[in-house]
Amino acid sequence: MGDDDNLDLGTVYGAAKFGSRTATPRILTVYAGVGGHHEPVQRLRLTRGTAQELRAGGYTMVRVRHRFRTYEISLTRYLGLDR
After folding, report:
1. Which residue of 6, 29, 35, 79 has the smallest Cβ count within 10 Å?
2. How far is 24 from 20, CA to CA, in rounded Å?
3. CA separation (Å) from 50 to 2, 3, 45, 63, 69?
4. What distance, in Å, lies between the first and last C-alpha atoms of the chain?
5. pTM above 0.85, yes or no
6. Residue with more model confidence, 60 or 41
7. Could you give the count of Cα atoms lying within 13 Å of 54 in the half-sphere of its Cβ?
8. Which residues contact 32 (CB under 8 A, 6 or more apart)?
């Protein structure tokens, strides 16, 4: 197994999108198709674990805030499941 096999795709996506592999932007809203965007029950940061839990709960996208900018992130793309 090479280094690429153990690569955390969330950190790769974070590096590309936010300029840092260690970026953990604050989740403002979660999106679940039918219900649209709504605020999460608790304050959350976008990490691989959080993304997996949200996706398992039926959510598909999140709106996050990082360094005074707002982004809409597909959880599938963040987790690297679109490859």
Report:
1. 6
2. 9
3. 26, 24, 7, 13, 20
4. 19
5. no
6. 60
7. 29
8. 58, 59, 60
